[in-house]
Amino acid sequence: MDSNFRFCDADYKSYTNTDELPAGQEALLQKNETERLKSLVKEYGEKLGHEPSACVVTFGCQMNARDSEKLTGVLEAAGFKLTEDEEADFVIYNTCTVRDNANTRVYGRLGHLHSLKDKAPLKKIALCGCMMQEPSVIDTILKKYRFVDMIFGTHNIYKFPELLCRMFESDETVVDVWKDTKEIVEDFPSVRKYPFKSGVNIMFGCDNFCTYCIVPYVRGRERSRRSSEILAEIERLASDGVSEVMLLGQNVNSYGKGLEGEISFPELLKKASEVDGIERVRFMTSHPKDLSDELIETIASSQKISRHLHLPVQSGSDEVLKAMNRHYTHEDYLKLVEKIKKAIPDIAITTDLIVGFPTETKEDVSRTIDLVNEVHFDNAFTFIYSPRTGTPAASMPRAMTDEEISACFNRLLGAVQENARSAAAALTGSTGVALVEELDEKDPSLVTGRLSNNYLVHFPGDESLIGKYINVKLTENKGFYFIGERI
Ligand code: SAH
Ligand code: SF4
Ligand code: F3S
Fold it and tell me: What predicted TM-score, i.e. pTM, was given to this entire model?
């Protein structure tokens, strides 16, 4: 194995680290590497005959998107011109592997990148993110996609400046994928898509091991950041013009686990909402098993905490929930939702649903449809189960055929849409505060704003409103969004 190849093998469950420095020293090292990188990027530009451009493509969830902001920040600091065009000189795919179709998309688009590189041989292509934590993926890329210049995983993303230097200094594919990490290095420059809102990582990884899910294997054990560091980051963001933050973690309700003397998630949420300049705080994702009364009270007591709870239920069948290792029942979930709605009547509740989990039968799906009709979700992401290598569910026998699963999926989707439509319709005529995000894509005489409950509203306005909080009335319901007017 050559010196540019470091891959910690497939023993997913073991917990060892490769060579790491303490967070402070590591941040310093990467700052120095960024300086070195600047001159390498300059040389690269001279070879190209123009200012080098870079494009970061995000394939995954909010946490993946937050990582992309950090990658973009490093690239900008190194002297790249940023673009969203994949004809850029340097393209990096920040991948996701939660379902197989995420992987298929990456392979499909790599074919296109290959043809671009054939036309521009100095083009550099890198891959990172969750999909790269899978050994079989690395094998495939090294065999079939040899034009890729660099591959790294989720644990050493903070080494991006150093990895880029290695890529520019090497003619071989740089591969650096770690099995896990203890360190949390967060001292990154980053470039935000919207200047007025930002995600903030409060924890990494996941310890829940839902039997269908690959996230704990590709993101590692759950690690929380110190609240003092999180709040300092939010203060910095606020002084930089950010007024909305989204606290990010796979299971924010277990925030602080393993950190001696740390505050609870509701306390953190409250403190975040009290930072000067912060007008709105969102969070993602909540696991129903850990959602506390303290959290409900905290949301109810502050208008700055968003009236939106994404509370993935996955299934309404007790047998399936047990096989999924979710630690709650249909009844537990209903009771929890009832308690939340009683304390916070204007809250919007959304969820994730999976159809076709191996043990699931048509009757199980009917129980999920019952639950959808009982809760009246404001919206739901409905996924067809996708077997993930190494997860317990992948080796369970299947109860339904693909055709049966597809019919169940359509039945469930029908129920989800009907409930979502009636939940939105019930809000027509109400008022709210919208954070204006952008000009309407189709009609530039309108702006698009997001309400505290996460619904979108389009209303007359111009660019000067972007980033502002505007009182609106929802005059017309268009299915899942609204047309409104300023009040
Ligand atoms: N941590 C979050 C979910 C992260 S993954 C939580 O537990 O709430 C986002 C969603 O992808 C999950 O809620 C689940 O609905 C879906 N998902 C995860 N693994 C899947 C798989 N193997 N097949 C289909 N959907 C899956
Ligand atoms: Fe996956 Fe479950 Fe962790 Fe969510 S809580 S990331 S579904 S293992
Ligand atoms: Fe995908 Fe990784 Fe997020 S697998 S859903 S990008 S944590």
Answer: 0.92
